[in-house]
Amino acid sequence: MIEMTAVVSPSWDVHVPLSGRMSREDVFAALAAIAEYGKDEDYSPEMLPAVLEEELIIMAGGLRVRDTVTGVEIEHGCCMGLEDWRAWQELLDGRAPWLGHSSEPGVEFADGVVRLWQDGARRDGPACEIRTADLPGLLEGVRQDLIGFLDLVRKWAPNGLGERLAARFDEDFQISAPL
After folding, report:
1. How many other CB atoms are there within 10 angstroms of residue 65's CB atom?
2. CB-side exposure of 168: number of CA atoms within 13 Å?
3. Centroid of chain to Cα 10
């Protein structure tokens, strides 16, 4: 079975799944990752109002694909942002979205299946196979998880910023709009 999850990456080797099932600590870790992105200072809640002033909020992260049978996982590459999560819909049109670099995940289309490799330059390794027919449901699941994350941001964001942050994330990441 294939799972697709939206993740934010506070650091290169840490990925926090986003959903309505997150703990308060995980929500705070996600908010910290968003507030710290591209800055040289450590997070403090006082940094969050500045996020609202940014032209476009960028969230280091992306979509993680995992085959629960084989255990193969495909993580987003470096410099991929969760703000581009809807680009995965391009797979439905037979086009490969950019999934980051270092290593750049590889994509191949064959007979109603999309194959993903963690390192596109090494396609002899394990891959995740997603049936093209399953992609809309997987992406809708990601959208529902992100809507749940917005609900928790509204509830738990510090300094009374929950509604404003959730609205801004929804706008910049196009979360609540139908697929």
Report:
1. 25
2. 21
3. 12
Q: List the one residue out of 129, 149, 175 whose CA is nearest residue 4.
A: 129
Find the angle CA(25)-CA(11)-CA(137) to the nearest 5 degrees: 75
Written as one letter, the residue type at 172 is: D
113-144 core/surface letters (b: 16 or more CB in 10 A; e: else): ebebbbebeeeeeebbebeeeebeebbeebbe
- Look up residue 163 and give its two tokens: 């509604």
C-alpha to C-alpha distance for 56 and 9, rounded to whole angstroms = 18
pLDDT tens-digit map of 104-124: 778 899 999 999 988 766 777
Question: pTM for this one?
Answer: 0.92
Q: Which residues pair with 128 in a beta bridge?
A: 116
CB 150 within 8 A of CB 175: yes
Highest mean pLDDT among 50-54, 74-78, 141-145: 141-145
Q: Pairing state of beta strands 113-117 and 2-11? A: unpaired
Encoded tokens for 4? 């697709």
| DSSP letter for each residue of 87-137 | GGGGGGGT-PPP--BSSPPEEEEETTEEEEESSTT-TTS-EEEEEGGGHHH
